Amino acid sequence: MNMNIFVQLVAALVLSTTLSGFAADRKIVLLAGSASHGIGEHEYRAGCLLLQKCLQSVAGINAVVYTNNWPTDPKAFDGADAVFIFSSGGGGHPAIKPERVKILGELMKKGVGFGTCHYAVEVPKDKGGPEFLQWQGGYFETYWSVNPIWMVDFINFLMYPIMRGVKPFKVNDEWYYHMRFVDGMKGVTPILTAVPPENTRGKPGVSNSHGGNPEVQKHKGEPEHMMWAYERPDGGRGFGFTGAHFHKNWGEENFRKVVLNALLWIAKVEVPPDGVSCPVSKAQLAENWDPKGQGRRNPDLEPLTPRLQP
Question: Which domains does the chain have, with CATH numbers?
């Protein structure tokens, strides 16, 4: 064989292999909200950076974190396979501004995955609610859903890719439940389900926007869903996870793993047989905390050392 032809063939093979490697990468965009609540609560930035660290240990995953609610980079979502939001919600949700709804809507049309965590599962019924039903199959609706702090013992799991490697676990958190789901829960698969204590539903006859409403009172003794997966009619995927009020809970292996598995799943990446394994040390849990004030101090929520990160 002519040496020049041989060199060209080798170069083409190397280039093809390189391009294939790039093509195999799946981009997961994680949006972290701005500082919120007290020390050790709603640590959006620290939580997303921890998830990013774990995702980067998975071959072929490119996890990118943008902080302070919404990226300033106009190319942030270019090539995205999934978008995850861990931020404050309600009327101040970073995703519900019209121009942002449009951006996300266009991504969803392309089959991009969508997931939200904790407060970010809540949007107004008439501003974000219809879109969240389409994108992730459910959301926290005021005067319908509730957000109590309670200890949940998750023991019964469905056979589902998101649950690979996840073992029964028990965690005290602000677990929201009684979500507003798509009609008949079509396409929705409950992931974390338990029967809440009756007192978490609020006092009968005492209703407010986040608890005690008559509808949630009707279902005492019934199982409720704290995490769910959604297979959209357009082929895209979504999920909602209602825990993670307390940052320290990311230290629980199974709590962490079920979210990491879900992030792969919505990006249409095969979840490993034992799920995403990513050891996290106490020192790593203490990294990247928001520099919040001294109000609402709770020693049980303090990071180990250093106490706060700049």
Answer: 26-301 (3.40.50.880)
